[in-house]
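Budget justification, computational time. The allocation requested in the original proposal was used primarily to generate structure tokens for proteins on the priority list. As evidence of use, we reproduce two of the resulting records. The first is shown immediately below.
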Amino acid sequence: MKGKEMVEVTTRNLIDEAKAKLVVKAKASKSSTKQVEALDPVLMNELLAKRSELYDAVKALKAEQDAIDAIIKDAIGSADELTVNGGKVASIARWRETSLVTDKVKELFPITECPEIYKATAKSRLTVH
């Protein structure tokens, strides 16, 4: 049960730190946007603080993973597989791709002249300020 208790203590510490950083004064925003007020500001601040920490942790872990991958790729070199004690532990795939230069397509076929080759899609992105 040590692991579970440690997670609970760590989570509680994160929540306590988040409470210490609560947003108490709203930032100025555009009046033309649709807005909704958080029903539970304390909870929302805790979630935003936790999200920020997770974002930083994922970013750091990704950088570490990329560094490890580079070392493994260097170890493989021009071979196809890496073995440890005779067992395959990693392999590398190499290929070439052809991609489309969309800026050139947009230049040669502007949307005003060729709307049938363009597709509109609805997307969303969360921005935390």
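The second record produced under the same allocation is shown here.
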Amino acid sequence: MQSSEAYWRLSDGVGNWVFAAVCLVIAVVLMRLILRERITLQGSMSYLVFLVVLGGMAVFPDATGWVAHALGFSTLANFFFCTAIAGLSILHLRALVTLSRVHLRSIALTQELAMLQERLDRVARSSAAPRRAEPGR
């Protein structure tokens, strides 16, 4: 004879609140990093929006289900994964753009540094040249 055990199911709503709590904890950690100036607010805004969207989907599953069915998704899980994948793709693209900008800026700074070093060497050579001529008189 099998004993009937009661399990918490995600459909009972507990999973929604647990996921929303996880999103909230991640947002708090992110805000702490921003306040300690470990990361910039500009770079983390899209990630915060992503967390708010996923957290909102967890807190309001009925509205999310309505949107999912209106968009043609048969299950809420498919809509959730599609939204998460799209959000992560946008975050990845944003990271690539930022990385490209940093790379181009580092190249420009390296070139500027080389030009300044060349000017400094020229000034040092031109000021050292007359001093060498004086002892030979």
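A brief technical remark on that second record: The chain has a mean pLDDT of 83.
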